[in-house]
Design goal:
642 residues, alpha+beta, Heat Shock Protein 90, Ribosomal Protein S5, domain 2, Rossmann fold, 3 domains, 9-stranded mixed β-sheet, 5-stranded mixed β-sheet, 24 strands
């Protein structure tokens, strides 16, 4: 019974007021997403974003990022420098306001920035709050100013430490080990991010340097071709159907639309969209406008030239995008972001602007380049024929009760729970492992689907071949979402889809084939975090009645050292596959939620994901060999970010 008169457990002292940046340290996830490696990298992104905003304002063309020992990061630019005078409201130096007060900056209705990538004005202050220390140097009005902060608190007064003819800001910080799970930065992740930033800001020089090891790693990133170079980079391993990308630019009422697009011989389409340099992974009004205009222009031109006859149906949107690589970048004064991840652009007027721009300028391009236009139209017509073949194959499979019915795959051992949020499905390689998994599982909420053989590499096939591939049918049917244009995440039958393959070359290949299929035809599952990789152990070590499992060679050595066992006296079993484990062993090591290790597949870096998929699964052998040679020695699934 609730006693409404009992106030002894709740009084005025329970109301906490978090001063300054204390709220950020208390709830860091609210400001940077998480305290994992993703949140760690976000710190650097926030500081670099401030420099990029200076570049957008035309005041900066050089940004340098250094990673030093102890994972200390330095970001320096040649912008105008953060103002250092006394702030009229706060009565302290403005640089101190910027770094110690939330929602303070030059991007809230002021005239300093026409375009800004900063969403909330919390960048510098949040990084400061989550750093063990931060030092900021400003070069402005002939002098060099410096101030130091420790865990968000001002540790020194602003002082003049020298004179200079240069301008700009240098920020040096060390992420706080009290906050983050690890402060070890990943150079390749940062390289991908800042390469993308250099593409989007034509002519801006970005230098990335890793000085943590004796051998310094350094990359200079500058692209005078801007997003044209971006498209060419994305298509570097594909056969382009036109010699140069189609480039479209328009400026109106303070907003800018910039598009680069090129068709290639692949069957997938790749599109990256941005608003003020922020990746709009959920699309938005600018993407809607582009797609609508592209479909209209292609159909209008094809009809005008008599390629599509009077009684023929129009090409559909998917037909006009097959084999298309496009980068769409808009810049607008007051971007409105929507969606769960705040990465969907909501400004309705930008749709009209993009649509009109593409209608006018792409139509003009086709008129002026009839040879290229014919290549594009032929590509779209081929896609339409494949779509029609896919429709027929889909209808055939439906009549056979494979894709759309209550009939689930015969080999699926379903769970009894009917709430998808509580259910998980293990996609298991082979009948042998499938048998052990079925016996060892928790039947209430764990389903098992054994797959046999290697399925289709969808990177080299059109969708009609996908529908015609029997080895993919059980997987598609079990998940229940459909694929491609019919995909509906609301119909997902299991919120955890766990890929459980052998820890060998064949298992890795099967896993990659499945991930490629998911990326091309069920991508929202990756974006939503529904896909996981199981981690079965490689070794079982026994000495007498005692035993332990090890998931790799390093863990084996550590386990032996910790237990003090003599390796020669131990019985060490190396599992060649999941089928070698008993049902109890498979449950204990790989399926039991209380003891297993499963890794969530994240789609953090879309550009890197696209490149990896194309390199590993595409037609060109050279990038695949290069990838294997580069990563063979340190390959692991400890970090799996597609």
């Amino acid at each position: 019974m609730i006693n409404n008169n009992d106030n002894s457990n709740y009084n005025e002292s329970d109301i906490k007021v978090l001063e300054g940046l204390e709220a950020v340290r208390k709830r860091p996830g609210m400001y940077i997403g998480s305290t994992s490696i993703r949140g760690l990298h976000h710190l650097v992104y926030e500081i670099v974003a401030n420099s990029v905003d200076e570049a957008l304002a035309g005041r900066c063309d050089k940004i340098e990022i250094y990673i030093d020992k102890d994972n200390i990061v330095t970001v320096t630019d040649n912008g105008s420098g953060i103002p250092v005078g006394i702030h009229p409201e706060k009565g302290i130096p403005t640089i101190e306001v910027v770094h110690t007060v939330l929602h303070a900056g030059g991007k809230f209705g002021g005239k300093a920035y026409s375009f800004s990538g900063g969403l909330h004005g919390v960048g510098a202050s949040v990084v400061n709050a989550l750093s063990e220390y931060m030092e900021v140097e400003v070069r402005r009005k002939g002098k060099i100013y410096k101030q130091r902060y420790e865990r968000g608190i001002t540790a020194s007064k602003l002082e003049v430490i020298g004179e200079t003819n240069e301008t700009g800001t240098t920020t040096r910080f060390k992420p706080d080990t009290q906050i983050f799970e690890s402060i070890e930065f990943e150079y390749e992740t940062m390289l991908s991010r800042y390469r993308e930033m250099a593409f989007l800001n034509k002519g801006v020089f970005i230098k990335l340097v890793d000085r943590r090891d004796e051998e310094i790693t350094e990359n200079d990133l500058i692209y005078e071709g801007g997003i044209n170079s971006f498209v060419q980079y994305l298509d570097r391993t594909k056969e382009s159907l036109t010699e140069q990308p189609i480039y479209i630019f328009a400026e109106k009422d303070g907003s800018i639309v910039e598009i680069a697009m090129q068709y290639n011989n692949s069957y997938a389409h790749t599109m990256f969209s941005y608003a003020n340099n922020i990746a709009t992974i959920e699309g938005g009004m600018h993407v809607t406008g582009f797609k609508a205009a592209l479909t209209k222009v292609v159909n209008d031109y094809a009809r005008k030239m008599g390629i599509i006859k009077e009684n023929d149906k129009n090409l559909q949107g998917d037909d006009t995008r097959e084999g298309l690589t496009a980068v769409l970048s808009v810049k607008l004064p007051e971007p409105q972001f929507e969606g769960q991840t705040k990465s969907k652009l909501g400004n309705s007027y930008i749709r009209t602007m993009v649509e009109q721009t593409v209608n006018d300028k792409l139509a003009a391009y086709f008129e002026e380049h009839p040879k290229e236009a014919k290549v594009v139209i032929d590509k779209c017509l081929g896609a339409a024929r494949a779509r029609d073949a896919a429709r027929k194959a889909r209808e055939l499979t439906r009549r056979k009760n494979v894709l759309e019915s209550n009939a689930l795959p015969g080999k699926l051992a379903d769970c009894s729970e009917r709430d998808p949020a509580l259910c998980e499905i293990f996609i298991v390689e082979g009948d042998s492992a499938g048998g052990s998994a079925k016996q060892g599982r928790e039947r209430k909420y764990q389903a098992i689907l054994p797959l046999w053989g290697k399925m289709l590499n969808v990177e080299k096939a059109r969708i009609d071949k996908v529908y015609g591939n029997e080895k993919l049918h059980p997987f598609i049917t079990a998940l229940g979402t459909g694929i491609g244009e019919e995909f509906d995440i609301e119909k997902l039958r299991y919120h955890k889809v766990i890929l459980m393959a052998d820890a060998d070359v064949d298992g890795s290949h099967i896993r990659m084939l499945l991930l490629t299929f998911l990326y091309r035809y069920m991508r929202p599952l990756l974006e939503n975090g529904n896909i996981y990789i199981a981690q079965p152990p490689l070794f079982k070590v026994e000495l007498g009645k005692e035993e332990f499992y090890a998931y790799n060679d390093k863990e084996l050595e550590i386990g032996l050292e910790k237990s003090g066992w003599d390796k020669k006296k131990c019985n060490i079993q190396r599992y060649k596959g999941l089928g070698e484990m008993s049902a109890n062993q498979l449950w204990e090591t790989t399926m039991n939620p209380d003891s297993r290790i499963i890794l969530q597949v994240n789609l953090d870096d879309a550009m890197s994901a696209e490149s990896t998929i194309v390199d590993l699964m595409g037609d060109d052998v050279a990038p695949r060999k290069q990838f294997i040679n580069k990563h063979a020695k340190d390959l692991s699934f400890e970090q799996l970010d597609i």
